[in-house]
Each structure stands twice: as C-alpha cells, then as structure tokens.
Design brief:
Helix content is 38%, strand content 18%. The chain is of the alpha/beta class and 228 residues long. Strand 9 and strand 10 form a beta hairpin. The longest helix is centred in the first third of the chain and has 15 residues. The radius of gyration is 17 Å and the shape is globular.
Length: 228
C-alpha cells in the first residue's frame, strides 16, 4: 500500500510537470540512427566536429536518405568553430534543421551563419562564472541555448553534470530573450527526473544512453519513459 501511494504521488507530480523536448545526440552509426529514429524524440543530433562521435556528411546524408526522420523529428548538426566553407558544404549535403555551435564562435560569426544558411542556430554556453554574460552577448542572435559542461580539451560530450542549482539563472536569461534553453552534460537515466522540477524547454543527452560506445535502446526507452 505504501509503495502504491509513492507511485501515485510520483505520477501526480509528473502529470503537472512540463515535459521537456528531448534531443538524443552523438549518433555515430546507422544502428544508432535507426534506434533514435523510431523513438519519436523531437530532436536527433549528429556531430560533425572532432569527437569520438564524429560523423561525415556522406554518412549522415545516406542514413537520412535511406531512413528519413519520423514523427517530425528535427535533425541537429553539431559543430565546433567551423570554417564557413565547411559549414556551407555540410548544409548543402545534409538536411539539417538546426545548427548547434559548440565552440568559441562570436555573435558576429553566428549572425553570418544565420544569414548564409537560414537555419535555426543554437549556441552552446559552457557553465561557469562568465556563462550568463556570454548568453547576453548572443541576445538577438541565437535562436536557443544549450548549457553544457566543459572540461580541459573537450568542448562537450564530457558525461559530467554541472551544478544544476544554477539552472534557474540560465532559464531567466533565456526567457528574457524569448528563446528555448536545453540542459546537457551528465544527464542519465538515473538522474533525469531531477531535471523535471525545473520545467525545462529541453534536455540534451548523449553518453547517458550509451553502452560500449553505442546507443542503448533499453536506456533510451527508460529515459523517455521517465520523462513521461
């Protein structure tokens, strides 16, 4: 009886919580893409920057052509300090909906990319003392933000969470700019429900749904179920 009460309590809380959009990122094989494709998540990400999860234009082009997105899933391309020519080439080859910039790109550079590609741009902000000031620099330029953890030598994909007590301050800035905010870094099946209380726009997950460097269907489905 006590267990049933707890389960009902959790269900009642989830019922009134906002369900965040989920982005499953770092897909590096056709098998990964097939798993994410049928999951029904709003966003799927591919990394075109130097990373253990890096993919090529040709690979993603073939995967998306042979197995087009289902359920209006939007495709996100992740880049780190890209050359304009390199970015233009990828956009011309791969049907990307969103460009996620993970490096030290400037507001002027981001504005140039928006003008050149016409794509939605998400700017990654690395958690730290100057992170809010960094967000303010992109006001009116970025179409959304992803707050992530940064470690020396890594722009993302660290599998480490930052201090989530800082989330409300990032949310307030995103709300003032009228753009969505995603949280990334160390999100896993066993901690994702902690994020529900923040009423987030979105959650970005990569290593947290992997086993042996591949997307794990069981972890993926478990995480989706926990989000309600």
């Amino acid at each position: 009886m006590e267990l049933m009460k707890k389960e009902l309590s959790v269900c009642s809380v989830k019922k009134f919580m906002r369900k965040p959009d989920l982005k499953l990122c770092g897909n590096r094989s056709l098998e990964d893409w097939e798993s994410v494709r049928v999951s029904g998540v709003p966003y799927a990400g591919f990394i075109f920057a130097n990373s253990v999860r890096r993919v090529t234009d040709e690979q993603v082009k073939v995967w998306l052509n042979d197995y087009p997105p289902l359920n209006d899933t939007k495709i996100v391309g992740v880049f780190v300090n890209p050359e304009l020519e390199e970015l233009a080439q990828t956009v011309s080859e791969v049907p990307l909906d969103v460009l996620q910039l993970h490096g030290s790109e400037t507001p002027a550079f981001v504005a140039k990319i928006k003008q050149m590609t016409g794509k939605t741009i998400w700017k990654v902000i690395h958690h730290g003392k100057s992170a809010l000031d960094e967000m303010k620099r992109f006001d009116g330029v970025a179409d959304g933000y992803v707050v992530d953890t940064k470690l020396p030598g890594q722009w993302g994909g660290t599998g480490k969470r930052f201090d989530w007590d800082s989330i409300p301050s990032y949310q307030a800035e995103a709300v003032s700019q009228k753009v969505p905010l995603f949280i990334a870094g160390g999100v896993k099946v066993d901690n994702v429900q902690e994020l529900l209380s923040y009423q987030l726009d979105g959650i970005d997950v990569s290593s947290g749904i992997e086993t042996n460097d591949r997307k794990d269907k069981a972890k993926m489905n478990d995480l989706i179920e926990r989000l309600g």
